[in-house]
Structure formats: structure tokens, C-alpha cells
Amino acid sequence: MRPDLPRILLAEALGTLILVLCGIGTGIMGTNLAPALPGLGLLANAIATGLVLYLLITILGPVSGAHLNPAVSLYLAARGAMRWRLVPHHIAAQLVGTALAVPLAHAMFDLDLWQVAQTHRAGGRLMLAEGVATFGLLLTIAGAEAHAPRQLPALVGAWIAAAFWFTASTSFANPAVTLGRVFSDTATGISPADAPGFIAAELLAVPVALVLVAFLFPRAPVQGNLGEGGRNE
After folding, report:
1. Where does residue 105 rank: exposed (0-12), middle (13-18), buried (19+ CB within 10 A)?
2. How confident is the model at residue 4 (pLDDT cuts 50, 70, 90)?
């Protein structure tokens, strides 16, 4: 085991916790402050999520790679940026962070700690939107690594903030986030019946991105803030 693996996994868990906390908490706050203006809540959610991604990738990227997303971990392993044997560790840490974030968000707003979401997000158009959102995230990562690695945190934050508005699904783009929102019956929730479709679409975006990115950026190194973290050996 790598001697720095506990530090890497703590960074992944803590980063995912903050990301999920931001998404759910912003949705609750938007509903509380402007219940009649859902668009305003979506705007606040998009801005907050984009900003927190910029922050997390900047401060945690050098530690863990700041994947914060099982789809990103799988994609980076397939591109050779991290060893496959580390992928289950990263994903487990992301899921732990998600599991802690949901009751923490609810506790801050005096809600039941664990809930089951009732918001239905079904249909092929929404699954297509999730595939587009996740593909765009992976494309952004690859393009940033190829041409502007120092701008990667800002570019990822910009993509997600924008995709909140032009995808029909409001851009979950993250299987861990999707799973966490199943247990939050708030504005950002997704019903248990609909979550598998979202997760499948997010994961199917990985092989699509691998094929297209290899064509667009055939010699692009995968380095900088992403990869397996803790500085590659």
C-alpha cells in the first residue's frame, strides 16, 4: 500500500463531502429563500457548485487528484493516469464522503437526517442529458490537461456551472452525487427508481469520452491537478 494512501483517500472523501454538501445545501437554501422562484435557486446552485469545484480541485488536486467522482476516476485509470488497483479505493472514499454529506446538509437546515427523494427524473431525454453533462466534464478535463493545465480547476467549474442550465437534467454528472441525492427529499433529490438510469448514462459517457478524446488529443499528457494524486511515482 502506498504510504500516502490514507491522506489521498481522506482528501477524496472530504472533497466529495463538500461537493455534495454544496449541492444539497444550496438547493435547500434556494427553496427556503425563494420558493416561488426555482430559476433563482438553480442559478445559485450552479454558481455555488462551480465555485466550490474550482476551490476543491485547486487545494486537493495535488493531494488526491480531486476526482470527487467515480466516472472521473474510471476515466483517468483507463487513460493511464492512475493505477487500476487504486480505483476502488478512490470510489469507496467518494461514497463515504457522499454518505456523510447528506445527513450533515439536512442537520444544518433542521431536516430529517435521512430521507427518500420523491422527485421523479425519468425519461430518455434526462438520461441523454446526463450523458452529455458527464461527457463534457471528461472532455473539459482532457482539453485542459492538453492545453491549459493551470486553468483546469476553473474550466471544470465553468463547465458544471454552465451545464446546470443547458442540460435537461441540471447536470448531476457524477454517480456519487446521484446516489447521495436519492436520500435527500429536497429540490435536488432524485427518486430511487430514476437514479439507476442517471448512473448508467454517466458511466456510459466514459467509453465515449475515451474514444473521442484519444482522437482529439492523441498525445495529451494526463498530469497536473488530476491523476492518482500524492504525486505520481
Report:
1. buried
2. confident
Set of cell numbers at residue 126: 434526462
Q: Which secondary structure element, helix H or strand E, spans residue 123, and what is its range?
A: none
Q: Are 45 and 188 in contact (CB under 8 A)?
A: yes
Residue carrying C-alpha cell 497536473: 224
pLDDT surpassing 50 at residue 224: no
Q: Are 19 and 68 in contact (CB under 8 A)?
A: yes
What are the two backbone dihedrals, phi and then psi, of residue 217, each rounded to the nearest 5 degrees?
-125, 70
Residues 85, 86, 89, 92: is their CA dihedral positive or negative?
Answer: negative
Output the CA–CA distances (angstroms, integers) from residue 233 to 82, 146, 164, 192, 219, in the order listed: 10, 21, 37, 40, 21
pLDDT band, very low/low/confident/very high, at 233 (cuts 50, 70, 90): very low
Q: Which three cell numbers stand for residue 28?
A: 435547500
Q: CB burial class (10 A; 0-12, 13-18, 19+) of residue 32?
A: exposed
Q: Which CATH architecture has domain 5-216?
A: Up-down Bundle (1.20)
Q: Which residues contact 167 (CB under 8 A, 6 or more apart)?
A: 129, 130, 132, 133
